[in-house]
């Protein structure tokens, strides 16, 4: 008997909203960073690499570039900070994330922010994974699992320098669409449980 894979086909959980008919809303997933930001829409991923040198120039370039993807969106899902980590010294990244949120508010585009732990659970079923020695996977090894899950479940294989950023953004997209009633694929119940506890907006605020 073969051992179950990380992405075994457990029964899918019901969508948080009834599975909807009709046109799908335009949802954009973002993994915002000061260097490379991942962006995702249904069936595609991209990234924005900032080459500006001054801090204000970096802010301007990232915000303008990201807005070019989400300016017509119905809903945007952003990866937030890892609350378990000490983010002291990451004030520029926090500011960048808030600039994006403020710009979305200014444009009247509803959004939500999802923690990395919720993203990992939705993609892989749990936040705890161990290697053959029993050591807990962290950092790039854990990001690789998320990337593998995106490729296996959605058929979207991210490549290159921004492969993990783009994969993270795709999970943000998938979570947002699932919550709205447009799941991109069947998702096992333990994965879909990550949707619980996220700070979603009022569903009526998302219109298309």
What would you say this structure looks like, in words?
- It is a single chain.
- The chain has 208 residues and is of the alpha/beta class.
- Helix content is 38%, strand content 12%.
- Strands 3-2-1-4-5 form a 5-stranded mixed sheet.
- Helix 2 links the parallel strand 4 (75-79) and strand 5.
- The termini are far apart.
- The relative contact order is 0.23.
- Residues 1-15 have low confidence and may be disordered.
How many DSSP H or I helices? 6
Distance between the termini: 48 Å
DSSP strand count:
5
Q: Biggest β-sheet, characterized?
A: 5 strands, mixed
Please render the helix and strand layout as text:
Elements: E1 27-31, E2 36-41, E3 44-49, H1 55-70, E4 75-79, H2 91-107, E5 111-114, H3 116-124, H4 139-154, H5 163-180, H6 189-192
Parallel strand pairs: 1-4, 4-5
Antiparallel strand pairs: 1-2, 2-3
Helix pairs in contact: 1-2, 3-4, 4-5
Notable features of this structure?
38% helix; 5 strands; disordered N terminus; Nucleotidyltransferase, domain 5; alpha/beta; 12% strand; single chain; 208 residues; globular
In short:
By secondary structure, the protein is an alpha/beta fold. The protein contains 6 helices and 5 strands.
